[in-house]
Design a protein that fits this description.
The complex is a heterodimer of chains A (386) and B (569). Chain A is an alpha/beta fold. Helix content of chain A is 43%, strand content 18%. The longest helix of chain A has 20 residues, at 2-21. Chain A is globular. Chain B is mainly α and 569 residues long. Chain B folds into four domains: 1-60; 63-367, no CATH class; 371-461; 473-568, Ribonuclease Inhibitor (Leucine-rich repeat, LRR (right-handed beta-alpha superhelix), Alpha-Beta Horseshoe). The chains are: A alpha/beta (386), B mainly alpha (569).
C-alpha cells in the first residue's frame, strides 16, 4: 500500500512535468521575406540558462569598494560598466562590480577580510574610509600577498605610512581641489568671512585634504569656525547646517565637502529663507545639487570625475591582472618616482551661468564650465551627476 | 576539485542526518535537543552555501574561511555570552554596543593620557601602559554594570529603560571624552584615536592573523560562565531569579545581588570586546563602532535557546546561536557575493524567526500550529506572508539561482507567492493532520513540477511575447535568409517604453542580428536600453535609427557600449 502510494507520487511528478512542460506558447505566424517566424519561435535555440543577472560563474571579479552610499558612486558605477564593456572583460575571464560599504571602518575591514576568503577576486579598488587605519592598510597588504591587485580610488590611505599597501591611487588631487574651492570662495567674497565645513567623516583622507586645501585657497580673510561631521547620516547633515547657522551669527560661507552635503546645505538655507546671507560652495555634483545650482542656490561647484575613477580604476586593475605593462606605463609614466603612483582624474569648476562673478581666468589647471556646458558633458556619458 | 566538492557535500549531508537522527533518540532535555537542532541547522547552512557558492570557497579556501568565521564568531560570542547571562536572569541589556564603543574609547584615551607622544606618532606605547589601560577599561566596564544594577534595583527602572539610557548616553559621552582628551593631549580635537602599537594589536591576533588568541579567550570565558551557571549555587539562583523573581526572593535568594552580578558580567564582557575591537581595528571610533551589536548579541542568545522571559538558556546554546548567525551571514556573503550586505539583515531576520520557531518542543509547536492562521488576523497574515515570500524571491531568487534558471525575478516571485499562498491555505484548513499531510505532499509535487515546467518553457514564452508586442505596435519579428532574427519596427508606433518591454523578451532569441528603428519615436533613452539589455548578444550586428529621434550622442554611446555594432545612420 505504501509502495503503491509512493509509486503514484512518482507518476504524479513525471506527468506533472510533462503536463506543464508540454504547454506551447501561442506564437503568431508572420509573413517574412524568407522563413516563417514559427520555425524560429519553436526552434530549440535557447540562449543557455539565461538569467536576469547573467551567468558569471568562472569569472574573476574586479571590485570597486566604496566608502559609503551616495549618488557620487552611481557615476563611478557607470564608468565601471563602460570599462567592463569596452575592455570586453567577460571575454578575458573578468567581471567588474561595485560594492557599497556601510560607512564604517569595521564594515570596510570586514568586507576586505571577506574578499580574502573568496577565490574569485582578482583586484580591488577601495575608497579608504580612514586614511590612518593600520588594520585596513594591513589587510590590503595581506591581500596583495595573496596575489590580489590593490588600488585606492577617490580616497587614499596615508601615503607616508601606507603607500606600499596599494599599487596606485586613482582620483582627484583633493588638496588641489580644496584650494580651488577656497579660491572660488575668495573670488565670490573678496572681503572674507567666517565659514563652516560639512563632511561625513573627518578622518577620511579626501576630507582632510579638501578641508586643509580650502583654508589655503581661501586665505587669511576666511576664518574656520567649525568642521561638522554627520557619519553619512543625511538627516544629521541637515541638522548640522541648522546648528551651524544658529551657533555662529556671523557665519557667511557654507562649504560642502562630501557630495550629499550640498543638498543638505541648500535645503536648510532655503528652509531658513536666508540665501542672500550665505555664499555656498560645494564639492561634487549630485543630481539635486545640479538642480540647485541651476536655481541659483549654489554659487560654485568643484566637481570630480567619478565616472573616470570607475573607468580608469577598472582599466588599471585589468592591466595589473593581465600584466599589461604598456597600459600601466601610459597611465603612470612616472611610477617609482615621488607621486608617480597618483593618477589624477581631473577637476572642473562649474558655475550657474556666464554671469557668475567667477571667470575662467581665475583658475589654472582646472576645467571651467557653466552649468549648461556641464550638463552637456553629463549627457555625453549618460550621467545624471558627477 | 569536483570530487572534493562532492565529498564535502556528502559528509555534510551525513553529518546533518546523523545529528537529526541523534535528536530522535537522545534522551536529553529540551535544551539538549535544541542544541542538536542548531548543530543540524549549521551543517545544513554550510551544505547550502557549498552547493550554491559558484566557487565552493568552503572547499577551495577552507582554511581562510574557517579563520574568518572563527574571528567573527568569537567576537559575537563574547557579547552574546554577556547578553545570555542577563536574559537568563530575567533582564535585558540594550547597551552592549555602546559599552563596546565606550570601552574602546576609554582604553584608547588611557593610552593617550599615559603615552601621548607615542600615540601621536604611532609608536609603541609600552607594556605597562597597555596593561594599565586594559585594567582601567575593565574596571569601568564593571562600574557601568553596577550603574545598570543600581538603576534597576534601587531606582526601580525597568531594565529596558535603564539600559536604553546608557545605549544613547555612553556613545555621546565617549565622543565628548575623545574630542576633549585629543584636544588637550594631541594638539587638536579628533573624533577617533588611532592606536598602532603592535603588541597591543597582537592581543586580538591582528598582526599575525591568528584567531587562536580570541578563540582561547572566549573559550575560557565560556567555561567559567558554564561552571558558574550549571555547577554553582549562584548559577542556580540566577536561573531561579529569571524563572520567577518573586518566588526567588521569597525563597531567600538575594535577587538584587544576582542582578548586580548579571549586569556586571554583561558589561565586563562588552568591555573586553571593546578592548579587542580597538586591537583589531587599530582605531577607537565612538561614533560608528559596534552600532547595533546589542541586537546581534540578543539574537544569538535567543537563537541559542535563551528565553526572553528569563530562567532558560545555556552557555553552549548561546555559542551555537552565535555560530549559526555568523555561518548564515558568511553564507549570504559567499553566495550573493557583491552587495551581499544589502540582503544580510533580511535573511538573518527570517532565519532567526524560523530557527526559534522550529526548535521549540513539539508540544509547543502543535499547540501553536492549531491557532496559526485563525480569524481575521490569520487572513491578513496569509496575505502578509504571501507578499513577503514573493518579494524575497524577487530580490533573492535571481541572485541565489543565477545561471541555474531561465525565469526572471518577476516570474520567480509569482511562483513563490502562489506556492506560499496555497501552502498557507492548506495550513489554515481545519482538517485531520493526515489529510493535511497528503495535501502538503501534493502541494510540494505540484510546486516543483510547475516551476520546472515553467522554467523549461520560459524562453519560448518570452519569444512569443516579443512577437506579440512587436505586432501590437505595428512592427514584426522576422527571420532572414541566414536564420538571423530581425526586429523590424520601422515606421511603427513604437516608443521608448514599448522598446524597453520588447527588449526584455527579444534577448531570448539566440540569433538576434538586427533591430530596425527607422522613422520611429525612439530617443536616446531607447538606444540606452538596447545597450543595457543586449550586452551578452554577440550576434547583434546592426541597429538602424534613420529618421528616428536619437541624437549623435546616443549613437556614440551605444557604439561605445556594444563595440562592433553598426549603428545607422
Amino acid at each position: 500500500m505504501i509502495l503503491l502510494r509512493r509509486l503514484s507520487y512518482f507518476c504524479w511528478i513525471v506527468s506533472s512535468i510533462f503536463l506543464v512542460g508540454g504547454c506551447e506558447p501561442n506564437v503568431p505566424k508572420t509573413k517574412t521575406t524568407s522563413t516563417s517566424m514559427e520555425a524560429a519561435a519553436h526552434s530549440g535555440k535557447t540562449p543557455q540558462a539565461h538569467s536576469s543577472t547573467g551567468g558569471t560563474a568562472g569569472l574573476k571579479r574586479l571590485i570597486i569598494l566604496t566608502n559609503g552610499d551616495s549618488p557620487f558612486w552611481d557615476a563611478c558605477r557607470e564608468g565601471l560598466l563602460a570599462a567592463k564593456s569596452e575592455l570586453k572583460l567577460n571575454e578575458v575571464g573578468l567581471d567588474a562590480v561595485l560594492d557599497v560599504n556601510d560607512g564604517t571602518a569595521q564594515g570596510q575591514l570586514a568586507k576586505l577580510q571577506q574578499y580574502g576568503t573568496q577565490s574569485d577576486i582578482a583586484g580591488v579598488g577601495v575608497s579608504a574610509i580612514d586614511a590612518k587605519n593600520v588594520a585596513i592598510a594591513d589587510e590590503l597588504r595581506s591581500m596583495q600577498k595573496k596575489g590580489i591587485k590593490i588600488l585606492t580610488i577617490d580616497s587614499d590611505v596615508d601615503r607616508s605610512q601606507f603607500g606600499d599597501a596599494r599599487h596606485a591611487f586613482i582620483g582627484t588631487d583633493n588638496l588641489a581641489g580644496g584650494k580651488v574651492l577656497g579660491q572660488c570662495a575668495k573670488e565670490l567674497k573678496p572681503q572674507g568671512g567666517e565659514y563652516v565645513t560639512f563632511v561625513g567623516l573627518k578622518g577620511a583622507q579626501n576630507a582632510i585634504e579638501r578641508i586643509g586645501g580650502f583654508g589655503q585657497g581661501a586665505g587669511e580673510k576666511f576664518i574656520d569656525k567649525d568642521t561638522m561631521t554627520d557619519e553619512n547620516d543625511k538627516t544629521k547633515a541637515r541638522d548640522n547646517v541648522r546648528n551651524a547657522i544658529r551657533n555662529h551669527p556671523n557665519l557667511s560661507v557654507l562649504v560642502g565637502i562630501w557630495s550629499y552635503n550640498a543638498p543638505a546645505i541648500v535645503d536648510v538655507v532655503k528652509e531658513a529663507n536666508r540665501r542672500k546671507d550665505f555664499t555656498i560652495v560645494v564639492f561634487d555634483a549630485e543630481p539635486t545639487a545640479i538642480t540647485a545650482l541651476g536655481e541659483g542656490s549654489i554659487d560654485a561647484m568643484v566637481v570630480q570625475n567619478p565616472f573616470a575613477m570607475g573607468y580608469e580604476g577598472i582599466r588599471m586593475l585589468d592591466a595589473l591582472v593581465r600584466d599589461q605593462k604598456d597600459v600601466l606605463e601610459k597611465m603612470l609614466p612616472n611610477y617609482g618616482k615621488p607621486d608617480g603612483d597618483l593618477f589624477d582624474t581631473g577637476l572642473k569648476v562649474v558655475v550657474p551661468s556666464a554671469d557668475s562673478p567667477l571667470k575662467p581666468s581665475d583658475f589654472t589647471g582646472v576645467e571651467f564650465l557653466t552649468l549648461d556646458q556641464f550638463q552637456l558633458w553629463l549627457k555625453k556619458y549618460g550621467l545624471t551627476g558627477s | 576539485m569536483g570530487s572534493s566538492v562532492v565529498a564535502t557535500l556528502v559528509v555534510m549531508i551525513m553529518a546533518s542526518v546523523g545529528v537529526i537522527g541523534l535528536r530522535r533518540f537522545a534522551a536529553t532535555s529540551d535544551a539538549g535537543r535544541h542544541q542538536l537542532g542548531l548543530i543540524a541547522a549549521i551543517f545544513f547552512v554550510l551544505f547550502c552555501t557549498t552547493l550554491l557558492d559558484e566557487h565552493h570557497n568552503y572547499v577551495t579556501k577552507w582554511d581562510v574561511s574557517i579563520v574568518d568565521l572563527l574571528r567573527q564568531t568569537t567576537m559575537l560570542s563574547l557579547i552574546a555570552l554577556g547578553a545570555a547571562v542577563v536574559i537568563i536572569a530575567g533582564g535585558i541589556d540594550l547597551s552592549a554596543g555602546s559599552v563596546i564603543a565606550f570601552s574602546a574609547s576609554i582604553c584608547a584615551t588611557f593610552m593617550v593620557l599615559l603615552a601621548p607622544e607615542a600615540v601621536n606618532q604611532s609608536l609603541p606605547v609600552g607594556t605597562w601602559v597597555i596593561i594599565a589601560s586594559i585594567v582601567g577599561t575593565l574596571i569601568i566596564g564593571v562600574l557601568i554594570g553596577s550603574l545598570h544594577a543600581w538603576l534597576i534595583t534601587e531606582v526601580g527602572l525597568p531594565p529596558f529603560v535603564a539600559t536604553l539610557g546608557t545605549l544613547v548616553g555612553l556613545r555621546s559621552l565617549s565622543r565628548a571624552i575623545v574630542e576633549n582628551v585629543t584636544q588637550s593631549m594631541l594638539g587638536g580635537a579628533r573624533t577617533q584615536i588611532n592606536i598602532a602599537d603592535k603588541s597591543f594589536r597582537e592581543l586580538s591576533g591582528a598582526m599575525s592573523g591568528t584567531v587562536w588568541n580570541l578563540t582561547i579567550l572566549v573559550a575560557i570565558f565560556a567555561v567559567i560562565l558554564w561552571l558558574l551557571l550549571s555547577k554553582t549555587v549562584t548559577g542556580r539562583h540566577l536561573y531561579a531569579l529569571g524563572g520567577n523573581e518573586q518566588a526567588a526572593r521569597l525563597s531567600g535568594i538575594q535577587t538584587n545581588r544576582m542582578k548586580w552580578l548579571a549586569y556586571c558580567i554583561s558589561s565586563f564582557l562588552s568591555s573586553v570586546a571593546g578592548v579587542l575591537y580597538v586591537s583589531q581595528l587599530s582605531v577607537a571610533d565612538p561614533q560608528t563602532l559596534a552600532r547595533g551589536y546589542e541586537l546581534n548579541a540578543i539574537a544569538a542568545s535567543v537563537v541559542g535557546g535563551c528565553s526572553l522571559q528569563g530562567g532558560l538558556g545555556t552557555i553552549q546554546g548561546t555559542l551555537l546561536g552565535a555560530l549559526f548567525l555568523r555561518v548564515v551571514i558568511d553564507g549570504v556573503a559567499k553566495i550573493i557575493k557583491t552587495g551581499a550586505d544589502v540582503y544580510e539583515g533580511l535573511i538573518v531576520g527570517v532565519l532567526v524567526v524560523f530557527a526559534v520557531t522550529f526548535t521549540k518542543t513539539s508540544e509547543a509547536m502543535s499547540s501553536t500550529r492549531r491557532k496559526l492562521f485563525s480569524g481575521p488576523l490569520g487572513w491578513v497574515t496569509i496575505v502578509n506572508l504571501t507578499l513577503l515570500a514573493g518579494v524575497m524571491m524577487a530580490l533573492l531568487g535571481a541572485k541565489l539561482l543565477r545561471g541555474r534558471v531561465q525565469m526572471d525575478a518577476a516570474w520567480l516571485a509569482l511562483i513563490a507567492a502562489a506556492s506560499t499562498l496555497f501552502l498557507l491555505l492548506i495550513l489554515r484548513c481545519e482538517t485531520s493532520p493526515q489529510r493535511k499531510r497528503s495535501w502538503g505532499i501534493t502541494w510540494a509535487i505540484a510546486t516543483v513540477a510547475a516551476a520546472i515546467g515553467l522554467d523549461m518553457n520560459y524562453s519560448q514564452f518570452q519569444r512569443g511575447s516579443a512577437v506579440a508586442i512587436a505586432r501590437n505596435v505595428g512592427g514584426s519579428v522576422t527571420q532572414n535568409d541566414d536564420g538571423g532574427i530581425v526586429v523590424d519596427l520601422a515606421g511603427s508606433r513604437c516608443t521608448d517604453t514599448d522598446l524597453k518591454r520588447l527588449l526584455q523578451r527579444v534577448k531570448y532569441f539566440s540569433n538576434l542580428t538586427e533591430i530596425r528603428l527607422n522613422n520611429t519615436e525612439i530617443t536616446d533613452s531607447g538606444l540606452d536600453a538596447i545597450g543595457k539589455a543586449i550586452q551578452d548578444a554577440k550576434s547583434l550586428k546592426r541597429v538602424d535609427t534613420t529618421g528616428s529621434k536619437v541624437s549623435e550622442i546616443g549613437v556614440v554611446k551605444l557604439q561605445r557600449t556594444l563595440s562592433g555594432l553598426k549603428v545607422l545612420p
